[in-house]
Design a protein that fits this description.
heterodimer, A: six-stranded mixed sheet, four-stranded antiparallel sheet, B: 11 strands, globular
């Protein structure tokens, strides 16, 4: 069982806005920023969000936020190439370990 | 180009050993924390171990403590993972990744393509 909880699957149509969530506790998300990683067809993961900051080369339809112990990744204007698995991750200072969510499979209908 | 390239994966019997390598290029390797993350077939990402820039601090997930050893050779821009007493549940694609400090927090900002480890008799 993952330390961070994500929806197993989310779907949306092209152009729609979708939000993926990641829930933890005070020892992880409540204390540290969250990274979001995109993995397409089990290829190498790629970071798409540093907390609420966009890495270079990532489209600005991606945005990140956090409230308390829940982080969110929002994709506004969903595109077919956004179909992927998305993982959240952060440091947990109780486990003394990096933790990942179980991943959300995003399907673009 | 900033790049990480893993190697050393393969098929090994339960109880056996394997040494993974990760070659870094395009950045000053000796100034970054680096990490190993694995992904079992059909499963999600799982952090395995990380090491600080000078190699003096090493952290491990509980299930690999005492069996896996992370190390680095900054002169050769390389990261290693020595895996002993391998179990079937260690079967996974193993990725190396770089930690970068962005606005006071660390993230895994560069990833390799992974190397596959299969533990089976």
């Amino acid at each position: 069982q993952s330390a961070l909880t994500q929806e197993a699957s989310v779907s949306g149509t092209v152009g729609q806005k979708v939000t993926l969530s990641c829930t933890g506790n005070s020892k992880n998300i409540g204390s540290y920023a969250v990274g979001w990683y995109q993995q397409i067809s089990h290829g190498a993961p790629k970071i798409v969000m540093f907390g609420n900051s966009l890495p270079s080369g990532i489209p600005d339809r991606f945005s990140g936020s956090k409230s308390g112990t829940t982080a969110s990744l929002t994709i506004s204007g969903l595109q077919p190439e956004d179909e992927a698995d998305y993982y959240c991750s952060t440091w947990d200072n109780s486990l003394t370990a990096w933790v990942f969510g179980g991943g959300t499979k995003l399907t673009v209908l | 180009e900033v790049q990480l390239v893993e190697s050393g994966g393969g098929l090994v019997q339960p109880g056996g050993s394997l040494r993974l390598s990760c070659a870094a290029s395009g950045f000053i390797f000796s100034t970054y924390w680096v990490t190993w993350v694995r992904q079992a077939p059909g499963k999600g990402l799982e952090w395995v171990a990380n090491i600080n820039p000078d190699g003096g601090v090493k952290q491990y997930m509980d299930s690999v403590k005492g069996r896996f050893t992370i190390s680095r050779d900054n002169a050769k821009n390389s990261l290693f993972l020595q895996m002993n007493s391998l179990r079937a549940e260690d079967t996974a694609v193993y990725y190396c990744a770089r930690h970068d400090l962005v606005y006071n927090y660390y993230y895994m900002d560069v990833w390799g393509k992974g190397t596959t480890v299969t533990v089976s008799s």
